[in-house]
Amino acid sequence: MSEKTLLEVEGLKKYFQVGKGQTLKAVDDISFQIKKGQTLGLVGESGCGKTTVGRTLLRIYEPDAGKILFDGKDISRVSKKEAKELTRRMQMVFQDPYASLNPFFTVGEIVEEGMKIHKMYHSETERMERVYELLEMVGLNKDHANRFPHEFSGGQRQRVGIARALALNPEFIVCDEPISALDVSIQAQVVNMLMKFQEEMDLTYLFIAHDLSMVRHIADQTAVMYLGTMVEYGSTRDVYEHPVHPYTRGLLSAVPVADPDYEKAHNRIPMDGEVPSPINPKPGCRFCARCRKATAQCHEETPKLRDVGGGHMAACWNL
Ligand SMILES: Nc1ncnc2c1ncn2[C@@H]1O[C@H](COP(=O)(O)OP(=O)(O)O)[C@@H](O)[C@H]1O
Ligand SMILES: [Mg+2]
Question: Could you write out the DSSP letters of every residue in the chain?
Answer without folding.
Answer: ----EEEEEEEEEEEEE-STT-EEEEEEEEEEEEETT-EEEEE--TTSSHHHHHHHHTTSS--SEEEEEETTEE-SS--HHHHHHHHHHEEEE-S-TTTSS-TTS-HHHHHHHHHHHTT-SSSHHHHHHHHHHHHHHTT--GGGGGS-GGGS-HHHHHHHHHHHHHTT--SEEEEESTTTTS-HHHHHHHHHHHHHHHHHHT-EEEEEES-HHHHHHH-SEEEEEETTEEEEEEEHHHHHHS--SHHHHHHHHTS--S-HHHHHHS------S----SBSPPSS-TTGGG-TT--HHHHHSPPPPEESSTT-EE--TT-
